[in-house]
Amino acid sequence: MVQYSVLASGSSGNAILVQSDKATILIDAGLSGRQIEAAMAEIGVSADSLSGIFVTHEHQDHVKGVGVLSRRYKVPVFANQRTWDGMERSIGEIKAGFYERFTTNDQIEIGNLAVKSFPISHDSNEPVGYCVLCGNTKLSIGTDMGYVNDKIKGFLMDSDAIIIEANHDIDMLRVGPYPWHLKQRILSDHGHLSNEAAGELLTEIISANTKCIHLAHLSKENNLPQLAHLTVKSILEEEQFKVGQEFDLEVTYPDKPTKLRAVKRR
Ligand SMILES: [Zn+2]
Ligand SMILES: [Zn+2]
Q: Tell me, what CATH number does 244's domain have?
């Protein structure tokens, strides 16, 4: 059994907690150390229990609290070399024993969790998504993705829980307040997935084992939680998925954690 909570999600900061009976990890720690401690406390998990922090990419909204938490709680930090190159200066010194470098596609064992990285497309040095396995239970995380190819779909497939980016509503982004170059960046292959793209992707990766889907990294300016949920739900229902019966579909928040949720492969 593995349980997880999206502690915070969006351009103001991202952190996902995944926990088994033998390990507690964070995927990204993009808020201040104090904010992450508070979010963890809210779901009843002590930051003392952290056994590792895995980083997807070096953008501030994913690494802001990495250095502080690593130093304060003596937690090893895992990232690929190019992500280390990109974040080293902003997160401050990480002591030798807590500096863990992997090669993208490696699988790292920590307690009874196996954490596998896979390459994604985004405007950073070497961004990755992660699959976290505990026994045969699988949790997949894909955010900050400009587009998704068959390889990425392969990694996300057959998951018990899926945390997937639904960044923007395309129409809201088009008519919204962002400057042109930023709109282009978000819509590009190195930007972010729209609600529509998330819905279409989900129709290809949901399986009989899927129990819960969380929509993540929602834009504050170019999306609304209800709109993201409705758009994705409609796309899934058009493909005959029974949302709310076969699996739950939930949104995530920039400023509050989702309920700690347990998943287990039947
Ligand atoms: Zn981000
Ligand atoms: Zn990013």
A: 3.60.15.10
